[in-house]
Amino acid sequence: MVQFHEHIIGDLLEDPTDAGGLVVLSSGLGVHKIIAALLHLHHPSQGTLLILSASPSQKHSILTSLNPNPNPNPNNNETTNSPSEITSDLQAHHRLSLYSSGNAFFITSRILIVDLLTRRLPTSAVAGIVLLNAHSLSETCTEAFIVRILRSSNRNLYVRAFSDKPHAMVAGFAKAERTLKCLFLRKLYLWPRFQVYVSEDLERDPPEVVDIRVPMSAYMVGIQKAVIEVMDACLKEMRKTNKVDVEDLTVENGLFKSFDEIVRRQLDPIWHTLGKKTKQLVSDLKTLRKLLDYLVRYDAVTYLKYLDSLRASESFRSVWIFAESSYKIFEYAKKRVYHFGMSKSENLTSPAMKSVKSKKRKLDDSNKDQEDSLVKDANSRVVLEEALEEAPKWKVLREILEEIEEEREKQAISSDDCVVESATDDNGIVLVACKDEHSCVQLEEYITGGPNKVMRGEWEKYLLSKVQLHALPKRNKKKPQTTKGFGVLDGAAPLTPGKGVEGSSLITQEHEALLAAATQISKQAQKGIEIVQDDPQSHEVGKGKGKGSSRGRNKNSSKNNGRKLEIKESESSSKNDGKKVEVNSANEHTTAGTSVLKKHVEGADVEQPRNEKRIPPVHFYAYESGQQVLDILKPSAIIVYHPDIAFVREIEVYKAENPSKKVKVYFLFYEDSTEVQKFEASIRRENGAFESLIRQKSMMMLPADQVAHGLVRNSASETDSPSKQNTVTRKAGGQKEADKEMQVIVDMREFMSSLPNVLHQKGMQILPVTLEVGDYILSPMICVERKSIQDLFSSFASGRLYHQVEMMVRYYRMPVLLIEFSQDKSFSFQSTNEISDDVTPHNIISKLSLLVLHFPRLRIVWSRSLHATAEIFASLKTNQDEPDEAKATRVGVPSEEGVVEDDVRTENYNTSAIEFLRRLPGVTDSNYRAIMDGCSSLAEVALLPVEKLAELMGGQKSAKILRDFLDAKLEFTATLTVMAP
């Protein structure tokens, strides 16, 4: 722990009421260490401590901080304090014993709220709650529901909430204040990076930092410029709508994922009034942000493959693809991988490609191989030249690793004593941090096999994907069409290349050349399929045999430029003799099944043309794993391949905790790239968020007794229920009757939503059970199936809704389908201009109409929000009996002992006979139940006279129709007319 961690814990513990508080700190400052320290200070005599809203990676980080030793000593008492996890697999009595033990537990909010409502958890046994990711909480969330129930019965309970996403705490109106109120807290603790204690601790002994700016290639610069131009053009079109805050529509904000949330939050209430152009622009801005991010993250071939997928999937509806500069994105991305043109041209290779190692191969149907030959078509007019541009950061990464190893060798030679003294402290590990697992795997392959091998493998996979795509069934060819842009996105693009379109012949030839190359590689891969699929562990390095590959890559591709791709085990590299190449998983230091780190030891570049140099042990780490690896590996050199502000803070905390350890950090930035701009903008955005929180904290209006005020406010809302408003005062001289609390039976699965919380706020008693029919039981007659908009569409698509409504109609007199909209979105399925006069089976309105026609007794209720739903439920329950919990749980459940009298189980209803009866002529939804009550079987119905049927069916006409149908003869007379020949 660092000293400022102790200050944060001291602020939480010094409160005399010990009510807790909300802590917001900068990302990467070690919130898991603070929680681990609080767990370490917890004693079982204080009561049970519950930890909510913790992600799997956060759980692992907390447990690692509590017990940093991966192989704990069973005799060590410290390991017994580690919190365990309460899951739904545990029986109810087992969970009750754990709640009373006084230990700390990880638990999900869904399990905890059910145990609280069923009174399986004694509230007096809970000492406090620790909430993570407080920025995701709201007034209607389940966590706020849990805190309200515990606070109402246990005023001594403390709540400590934590958030390391300050920019999320300023999203919306008074987000921090609303979070404090829903958790019944009064104190807000802000710990930004620029706080005095934090800055002093982290800057007292900072690590040695080397900032390396890597110049991008000419094509990368061109792609980045083109994407920014297209993004700016889309933003200009967005500004014309006058429905979004113009200050938020900047390219800098467009670099972050939160930009989508900002735009959608402003447009959701009026989404149904927007045109298709505006809706598509919102989606296009997200795509353009990915293009900028992937440009600096992935290699040239992977980037081109992503662009091809975009062209295939979005070319018919995207707006950005028709911008003036969009063609440059595709053109430059293609030139990074290959170049296609006339064979007699002297400018096949542009100046930007002169520094790139190119490869020319002949593409024809024959099996002849020629080194450094041109790829020509049948008329020798065009040529395909492979560029396979290497990522500029790769070479710099290799040079940094060699430089680190050289420095260590010099230190070892110059001062052997120092090495011996620091041997226990310096393990010589170099950590390379990347954004995702794909980058880690690719960088590891680059270090062990060289850039040519990596790029050749990606290129072969790209070509093989062309073969697979070409093998798919083709649609009927139509005449070429063009679609034009509008506004600043003024351009035109052919939807399908064909005759009459300028340049279409060249595009066709290019496509055929790629298919020819792909077909050749596919054939060669099939020839070597047996060797490719060999087990890599079966090859021994000491015998001169390399490891097999499941990807079909060329084993000696770096020296076979211009040669046919031959996959032969005997020709694999023999330079591995005497050298050890290892790829170890991170399971050595982390939990089982978590592949976070990848390592190679002394993995010299076995196939590099330049002089080989030794490199140190390297571990690769992906940010997306969320694991805390610095305290486990304790590296002496860290290479930040993809800069991330949270990981930078983790490095600072790691160095502050180990002041005597020498740590050298290398930052790799692409010079003048959006990567630098995004990193700097993230710092400014976080500082701005904390400044906004500081201003909000100074102006917050919070009651002196937040707990009592919140509980009184909730109880006051309970008195306004419709049942209490409708109390008749004439009875007993105006004497007030005893209040009866409303009860609502709720299915267990519905606690994933916030509606049970809102119902509880309205003063209703929630009874959580497992229901086979319906989601909410309001009375013995009323059953409600709740559907959100997204769930409604998916239920129609799968047919699940039909079955659910059928079961409700069978067992309840008043089946209700509740369609609930979100409060911050439009209260409509579609805009007015999208409604057509034609009835189509794919339209949601048509599906609802068919559902109502098929089930006439079904009632559809439309709700604007959760609070509107609570009001509707209160109105429906007026003058209704309370539901029976035992009976509701038996509805629709098959019994093993058979039919039970006066029960509502499945066996009591012959559904096939009922369906047959309802389809008879004259039988309607209004009289089929009377027929069922008057007759015990279909045979008895068939023998009833017309008078009795008229009495049961409520009319002579319906009875006569049914009687005539039952008495009609099966024989019929056919008349044949014979024609004379």
From TrEMBL:
GO MF annotations, alphabetized: damaged DNA binding; single-stranded DNA binding; single-stranded DNA endodeoxyribonuclease activity
Domain ERCC4, residue spans: 743-823
Primary subcellular site in the record, as a coarse category: nucleus
One GO BP annotation of this record: double-strand break repair via homologous recombination
GO cellular component annotations of the record: nucleotide-excision repair factor 1 complex
Start and end residues of each stretch annotated as Disordered: 62-85, 351-374, 475-503, 531-611, 714-739
Biased composition (Basic and acidic residues): 362-374, 563-582, 599-611
One Pfam family cited in the UniProt record for this chain: ERCC4
PANTHER family given in the database record: DNA REPAIR ENDONUCLEASE XPF
Protein name: ERCC4 domain-containing protein
